[in-house]
Amino acid sequence: MRRPCGTFDTSYAQDLSIIKTRFQWIMAITGAVLIFVILPLSGNVSLLSKVNIIGITIIAALGLNILTGYCGQLNFGQAAFIAVGAYISAMLINHLHWNWLLTVPFAALGTALVGLIFGLPSLRIKGFYIAVTTLAAFFVIMFVLKHGGAITGGVNGLTVGTVSIGGIVFDDERKFFFLIMGFLVLMTFFAKNIVRGKIGRAFIAVRDNDLAAELMGMNIFKYKLIAFCVCSAYAGVAGSLFAAYFGSVSPGQFTFGESIWYIGFIIVGGMGSITGTFFGVIFLKSIDFIVTSVGPSLSSSLPVLGSQSISSIMLVMFGLVIIFFLIFEPRGLYHRWELLKASIRFWPLSY
User: Fold this and answer.
1) Is the distance from CB of 209 to CB of 103 less than 8 angstroms?
2) Staple partner for 14: which of 9, 53, 190, 262, CB 3.0–4.6 Å?
3) CA 43 – CA 22 distance, rounded (Å)
4) pLDDT digit of tens for each residue in the chain (351 aa)?
5) Domain parsing of the chain, residue ranges
6) CA atoms of 56 and 33, how far apart (whole Å)
């Protein structure tokens, strides 16, 4: 990480710290106040609902970025793993009458186990072939959920109902905002510490050259499975929050298109970057919300296009954005953000 001129680390604690300078602390505290104080007090229900959806999406995308961005293992079935977490929470609430908060760790562990099972082929295959395995995992999981009978509710799914924790009933956007943002901060903290520790360095070694990593004595199969488990656990937490937020789960809520969206999030934000995950999700979800809000008025003013054509605009824009970033900014928005910060730090002596 580039540091401002004259700023030096004098201990290992300073070198390993996430927030290093006084200015960074000021910006972090200011951002926390804006997000956790001013935004909820604004009373804008529509904005809070969009932020809540973005928060759930970021949690799932963080797990995928750890697997794909840091460990180099492609995953086209993230939406299915989110569905597993959502269904585990819904089944525990419906059949065993558990409190929702108690279902969250079981959703994470159960989804991690499913991810472990579908990660086992990584012992023999890699690259495009492991991507096809995760693609098959999506259809297998969705088939089981659709034909699970009374256990999964079949095609109709399950109802979660109102979520309450310690007497606090989460029945509006503001309360869900604090719940989702609390989990987002916690999962971001875990992700940041995973990728900058021993396991994270092993992930990067496997991603860059798994043969060289194996020759150095690393058990690359073990680290691949750990990456699959971590990715799936994050999807399980996101799925549990998804079930609580929407109040019900059904197979139609988890489509293959959503899995492709998650790949797009980490490409646009920056693969192998925790901060980039935030950038990618916020950027693409903002485009989605804008098109969704403008679409009805555009359809009424231009009836020749029709509602189906307007709904397809988002898919076209999504594809164009991905192509643009793959060609002109393959390292994502996070790389551009780092260049911007470096230019500000060294201005006017940019050299």
Assistant:
1) no
2) 9
3) 32
4) 556 566 677 777 777 777 777 777 888 888 888 888 888 887 788 889 999 999 999 999 999 999 999 999 989 999 999 999 999 999 999 999 899 999 999 999 999 999 999 988 877 888 788 888 899 999 999 999 999 889 999 889 999 888 888 888 888 899 999 999 999 999 999 999 999 889 999 999 999 988 898 888 899 999 999 999 999 999 999 999 999 999 999 999 999 989 999 999 999 999 999 999 999 999 999 988 887 777 666 666 666 666 666 667 777 878 888 899 989 888 999 999 888 887 777 776 655
5) 48-346
6) 20
